[in-house]
Amino acid sequence: MSSTVVIKDKTPILTTFLLPLLNVHASANPAASSPPFFLGISGSQGSGKSTLVTTLAATLRTYPHSLNVVVFSADDLYLTHADQVALRELYPDNKLVRHRGEPGTHDIELAKKVFQSLHDQQETKIPSYDKSAFEGQGDRADELSWEKVNGPYDLVIFEGWCIGFRPLPDDFVEEAWNKSKTSGKGTLGKHLLEHLLFVNTKLKDYGTITDSLNALIHIDAEDISYVYDWRIQQEHGLISSRGSGMTDGQIIEFVNGYMPAYELYIDDLRRGSFKAKGKQLRVVIGKDRNIVKVVNL
């Protein structure tokens, strides 16, 4: 599908892509002890990713599919507040790790443990993160509050803004940084090269998780700058419901912290995170979040 289309409900497109893969996986892994299918869903802040994941999971849990679906987010794998503070103090000049968000601010060892437990069809506690703790700096929720799930699992959906990002050669990062500094475009040139390379090195640790995925769905903004407006819309909604929130200026500064990773890694993700064709679906959306194009990579 390459022409512009207006589709508000993306779920049928996702299930059309996913169900054949699930069937093949189930046929190849018939035992209850066999690993579940791991699906990554990647998408920028404000793209509607979380709502889409909730709808997709609900659809697959009900008849005629009736699958045991586990959903969790990369957001729930951020470092504890204490560890985030320690990281910030260790690299006080690196604005990219001053707050949670960029690669390097997730607990990858915890992610590996959760993935392995689900893979082995074990009873698993799904981590949870409280973004409101410490006046919005956030902290991992008490383990007693984590959801406990039981297998046998059919499908694990792992969603997040940087799912599927792959590290780049250092010279590529340097080239992109030089272009940004020379042109004045983008955010890369506003950071030190060594800080960008730090994040790029940290992203290498995420490879084990990406390689564990059987397939990936990428909800891709036609123009990544839409993230600013989408995030502002989200915050205005939160302010209406709870009476407080960030100012528009604070939101822009917040999104600026994520933008270097988008600028570095989004093009590579658009070309595909996997070598095998048919494992990734790219769903391009316009500013109104309606589908513009769907590409099976």
Automatic annotation (TrEMBL):
Gene3D superfamilies listed in its UniProt record: P-loop containing nucleotide triphosphate hydrolases
Q: Which UniProt keywords apply?
A: ATP-binding, Cytoplasm, Hydrolase, Kinase, Nucleotide-binding, Nucleus, Transferase
Q: Tell me the domain of life.
A: Eukaryota
What is the predominant subcellular site recorded for this chain?
Answer: cytoplasm
Localized where?
Cytoplasm; Nucleus
Q: Describe the location of the Phosphoribulokinase/uridine kinase domain by residue ranges.
A: 39-160
Q: Report the GO molecular function annotations.
A: ATP binding; hydrolase activity; kinase activity
- Entry's Gene Ontology cellular component terms: cytoplasm; nucleus
- What family classification does the UniProt entry report for this protein? Belongs to the GLYK kinase family.
Task: From the Swiss-Prot or TrEMBL record, give the protein name.
Answer: P-loop containing nucleoside triphosphate hydrolase protein
